[in-house]
Write a structure and sequence with these properties.
Shape: elongated
Number of helices: 3
Helix content: under 10%
Distance between the termini: 51 Å
Structural class: mainly beta
Length: 183
Amino acid sequence: MSGQHTRWPCLLTTPLGRPTSQPLVLWTPMVVVPSLAVVVPSLVAHELPERESSPVGEHLESGARVLVQATCGGWLQLAPDYESQLLCGGAVAAAGWVEERAEGGRALRSLEKRLPSSTTYQVTRAGGPCFAWSSPGGAGEKRPLETLQYEARVAVEAECGHWVKLKGVPQPAWVELDVFLAG
């Protein structure tokens, strides 16, 4: 495979916006970025979603926090935004793609911040239905939630990046934090 790249099921962008001669195909953006933590001793970010591509930035050490903006066949693209830079440093935050799995299991895990049991948020997004997903980041099953009407107060149990987990819902229900910040 040296000198050649495979076709990925995603749109390839280099970490610093450098042009690439790689084929352009579809990628899967996250609706809003979730927050993850590295759970392996060290993780290398790559310019493109394949092991043979050039490493970029510094290695992510165990416990490093990152935000993810897209997925591509078992790879996650780090979000190059200000919040991500605050969490893990500029060199790492602007780095491209990391593998979702490592030897022995997952390389990253969701960072759920548990909230006090009495926490409620008020829906500030008007018009149209609000949707929930079974996992943060717009991953998993998507379903409309009739209980999320404009100005409704809802109990929440956790946050993960730009996502909120609703309390008292039969299945896990993750909603964009923007539902409660719109206006």
